[in-house]
Specification:
This protein is mainly α. The chain has eight helices and no strands.
Length: about 240
């Protein structure tokens, strides 16, 4: 809901959930995650237009990663980090949806939340200190800014959107230097794999545009959930 409203209407508090096609209010019993989508056979009760499979996918994805997050933090006695990671994951899920569907990333869930990353780190609600948080945000922005400028000078085309720069800065503010770097590495590997697969399957030009933000979001989520393993695997620490 937040992802749709950030991209399509001026406020997230305008009214209750509604069908984006016919604008009719959705009844509460048609708004139950996953179950309502199945019962309605992926169609609006009023106008019979198809309801995107992104809705149940995001709902299942959200439930899964938050369950794993809680389990991991509880097992390591780190539940004090839950509010910060709840905020972080929520923003990444919204970014995942908007970038995948609209190829746009809202600053409300990236740039504007960097101060929260700094506050969480400074108050001990994240496993990094304030200096690491600031360094991660700076590294996140300028590493992609540098890549973007090099690509532009080499091809006279924009290769990386401003939203991706701000997203990685946001990731760095919550995960620090190591988390920022590993998130970028994982996102690049996954993005390259899917990009090549898309080109091979569709036989479309290599110049086809693909959103990168949701791959960065996946990289960041994986780092939070499996950070120790990934640091040992990628960085050898």
């Amino acid at each position: 809901m937040l992802a749709y409203r950030l991209m399509n209407i001026n406020t997230i508090l305008e009214k209750r959930s509604f069908c984006p096609k016919c604008k009719k209010i959705i009844f509460w019993y048609d708004n139950i995650p996953v179950i309502s989508w199945i019962i309605l056979q992926a169609k609006c009760r009023h106008c019979k237009q198809k309801i995107s499979a992104l809705y149940p996918f995001i709902e299942i994805f959200t439930a899964t990663i938050f369950s794993i997050l809680y389990y991991q933090l509880k097992n390591t006695n780190n539940l004090t980090f839950l509010p910060a990671y709840f905020t972080f994951f929520s923003a990444l899920i919204i970014t995942f949806r908007t970038d995948l569907e609209f190829m746009l990333i809202s600053r409300f869930v990236t740039l504007f939340l960097i101060p929260m990353g700094l506050i969480f780190s400074a108050t001990g609600l994240l496993p990094i200190n304030l200096l690491n948080s600031i360094s991660g945000a700076i590294l996140g922005y300028f590493i992609l800014w540098t890549v973007s400028k090099i690509f532009y000078y080499a091809t006279s085309k924009d290769g990386i959107g401003q939203g991706d720069l701000e997203l990685l800065a946001f990731i760095g503010s919550f995960l620090g230097l190591a988390g920022c770097w590993i998130s970028l590495f994982i996102g690049s590997v996954i993005g390259s794999f899917f990009g090549l697969a898309y080109i091979v399957i569709t036989k479309k030009s290599k110049s086809v545009k693909m959103p990168f933000g949701h791959f960065l979001a996946i990289g960041a989520i994986l780092f939070v959930l499996f950070g120790d393993y990934l640091k040992n695997l990628i960085l050898g620490i």
